[in-house]
Specification:
Layout (H helix, E strand, L loop, with lengths): L1 H13 L6 H13 L5 H11 L5 H14 L2 E5 L5 E5 L7 E5 L5 E4 L2 H13 L10 E4 L2 H10 L7
Parallel strand pairs: 3-5
Antiparallel strand pairs: 1-2, 3-4
Bound molecules: zinc ion (2 copies).
One zinc ion (ZN) binds next to strand 4.
Length: 154
């Protein structure tokens, strides 16, 4: 975790930007939660630690962190973006619940190999890839059945 922050500070120095206490707080919260957060969710966490940090600062810092490659931006097709830390986090793909917004991280070496093969077949040079599978998680399937007052199919 320390290495990741150092790497980021180095990037900021190279770009002649300033490493501020507010940025530090935002990055700390991102690293601490290790989740897929919306700007709103991150803002609320940051506010608890330092109420002087405004929403615009959080949003701007997130954009900057995406540009730096520190964070990845995941479009969950409901109009909101979620952010997750990439540095120090192994590559993975996502199952995303369209009901509760839950992210399930998945990884398959076989699938990665097939994807790499497809890339080669097209003479393509890959920068990055992200597989997102949208649907309904187990918990929400149960809840939906309950609210519709229908017994689960046997
Ligand atoms: Zn769900
Ligand atoms: Zn993830």
């Amino acid at each position: 975790m320390k290495d990741v922050t150092e790497k980021l500070k180095e990037y900021i120095r190279r770009k002649n930007l300033r490493w501020t206490g507010q940025r530090q707080t935002i990055v700390e919260q991102l690293l601490r939660t290790r989740q897929h957060l919306t700007t709103d969710e991150l803002f609320r966490k940051v506010q608890k630690q330092d109420p002087s940090i405004g929403y615009a600062t959080v949003a701007r810092t997130l954009h900057f962190l995406v540009d730096a490659g520190f964070c990845d931006q995941v479009d969950i097709s409901d109009g909101s973006m979620r952010y997750e830390v990439v540095w120090g986090h192994e590559h993975h793909d996502h199952l995303i619940c369209s009901v509760c917004g839950k992210f399930i991280e998945i990884f398959s070496p076989e699938l990665e190999k097939i994807q790499a093969k497809l890339v080669r077949q097209h003479g393509f040079i890959e920068t990055t890839h992200k597989l997102q599978i949208f649907g309904t998680c187990i918990d929400c399937q149960k809840n939906l059945c309950r609210t519709e007052n229908k017994p689960l199919a046997k």
